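Help needed: design a sequence for this.
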């Protein structure tokens, strides 16, 4: 199904441009609605737009009382697109400095995993023909400032952009405060700080067809001051520009029966604190291994599901490369995950037996030290749910403790020692009733759930902590035939 697409242009005194602009937009070989927001133009632009809207059903006009700022007009256009359920939003100027012919190029550059496509004046030489010296200076100086202070290599002051609204949380735009030209670099800066994937295409911007540039020297100075304020605020209060993460509270409360809330409690006994130190050392190994196999299995910008995310300590650093949705049954675990991973795309309480996502939602999924807590029939159900939410060809990365893994042997020895000293069994975390024994077992489990085993590793590189299994989704699933599992306990 084609995405619902909206093309938006703000107007102020563009009466000589809008009729031609509308005609070229309507003639584009793509399905799109068109929105104009006019700020009470005294030259009659609003009346011309109303006539165009009566002529073309796909055209909508919003009239505002007076000149309220180009940034606030873009904010209104973005809100309109979200409110009406559009999937993509293309924004542009109405003065023909942006060519409608570049819009299909923006759309073509919107590859999987890309959230924003920006038309850039700085990728090729001679891209600003006919510009006046003072406007060239303001533009080049602004680009220098955004690269130097905001560390953004993109064309951050241009309006020709495509936003994938399905992948960009609306709350990010709520963090934007600028109402004038500073809107463009502030909005892109906030998107960057929240891990949004941005791509650029080269464009040529001729001088305005009619009239004078709205970017005055005074406005340029005001925007420069605002940019420096962004820099200082980001240096002093980095969380100011990052969307606050919270557990989704709209879903009904889920119960968890294995005791994970107690496990993720920050209140620890002395023995529990010792266990945490050991677990932290193992997580360092797991974190390194996860980066290795994620890099080999998932493309940059891929939409990933971390099913059974726990506290997410091993996910730190992945969000700049992938769009990760984290789910867990434990509210306490999700609170820790949100604290440890402020750039996560989505955090939600959910059962891995009943994932709240449509089929083929994710490019990939991973699962770290979870399956060993469930029986064979439960494992079949979990793998089936992961199969359902992955797209065809999507990869699944599973870390699954081996029954002869170093963590298993360590905990077995520790429990034996404590039983001798304390005279009772010491339980550190919920039972792990199913451990893996071989590559053949892994292949059988994946095959029964509709995956093809692509990689299997259990060796010295990760100190024999866990088996690493990589499966690829098949279209057709075979009848389930699951192997027998052994029963042990290891570190989560």
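Sure. Designed sequence:
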């Amino acid at each position: 199904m084609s995405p619902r697409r909206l093309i938006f242009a703000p107007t102020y005194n563009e009466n000589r441009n809008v009729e031609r602009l509308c005609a070229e937009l309507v003639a584009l070989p793509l399905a799109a609605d068109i929105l104009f927001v006019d700020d009470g133009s005294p030259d009659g632009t609003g009346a011309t737009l109303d006539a165009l809207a009566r002529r073309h059903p796909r055209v909508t006009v919003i009239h505002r009382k007076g000149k309220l700022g180009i940034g606030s007009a873009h904010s209104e256009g973005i809100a309109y697109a979200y409110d009406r359920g559009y999937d993509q939003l293309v924004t542009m100027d109405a003065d023909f400095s942006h060519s409608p012919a570049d819009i299909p190029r923006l759309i073509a550059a919107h590859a999987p995993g890309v959230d924003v496509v920006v038309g850039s004046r700085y990728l090729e030489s001679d891209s600003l023909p006919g510009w006046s010296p003072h406007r060239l200076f303001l533009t080049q100086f602004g680009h220098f400032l955004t690269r130097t202070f905001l560390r953004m290599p993109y064309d951050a002051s241009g309006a020709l952009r495509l936003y994938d609204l399905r992948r960009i949380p609306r709350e990010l735009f709520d963090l934007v405060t600028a109402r004038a030209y500073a809107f463009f670099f502030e909005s892109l800066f906030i998107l960057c700080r929240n891990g949004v994937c941005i791509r650029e295409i080269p464009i040529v911007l001729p001088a305005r067809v009619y009239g004078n540039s709205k970017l005055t020297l005074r406005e340029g100075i005001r925007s420069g001051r605002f940019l420096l304020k962004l820099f200082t605020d980001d240096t002093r209060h980095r969380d100011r520009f990052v969307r606050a993460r919270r557990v989704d509270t709209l879903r009904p409360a889920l119960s968890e029966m294995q005791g994970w809330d107690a496990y993720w409690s920050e209140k620890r006994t002395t023995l529990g604190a010792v266990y945490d130190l050991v677990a932290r050392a193992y997580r360092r190994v797991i974190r390194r291994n996860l980066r290795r196999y994620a890099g080999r299995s998932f493309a940059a910008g891929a939409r990933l599901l971390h099913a059974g995310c726990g506290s997410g300590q091993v996910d730190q650093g992945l969000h700049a490369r992938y769009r990760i949705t984290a789910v867990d049954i434990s509210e306490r675990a999700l609170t820790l995950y949100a604290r440890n991973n402020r750039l996560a795309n989505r955090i939600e309480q959910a059962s891995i037996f009943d994932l709240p996502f449509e089929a083929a939602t994710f490019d990939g999924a991973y699962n770290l030290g979870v399956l060993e807590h469930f029986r064979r029939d439960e494992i079949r159900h979990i793998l089936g749910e992961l199969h359902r939410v992955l797209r065809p060809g999507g990869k699944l990365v599973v870390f699954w403790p081996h029954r002869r893994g170093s963590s298993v042997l360590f905990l077995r020895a520790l429990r034996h020692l404590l039983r001798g000293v304390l005279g009772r069994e010491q339980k550190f975390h919920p039972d792990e009733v199913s451990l893996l024994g071989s590559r053949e077992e892994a292949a059988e489990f994946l095959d029964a759930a509709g995956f093809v085993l692509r990689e299997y590793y259990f060796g010295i590189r990760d100190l024999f902590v866990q088996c690493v299994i990589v499966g690829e989704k098949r279209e057709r699933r075979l009848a389930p035939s699951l192997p027998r599992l052994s029963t042990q306990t290891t570190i989560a």
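Residues 285 and 462 are 6 Å apart (CA to CA).
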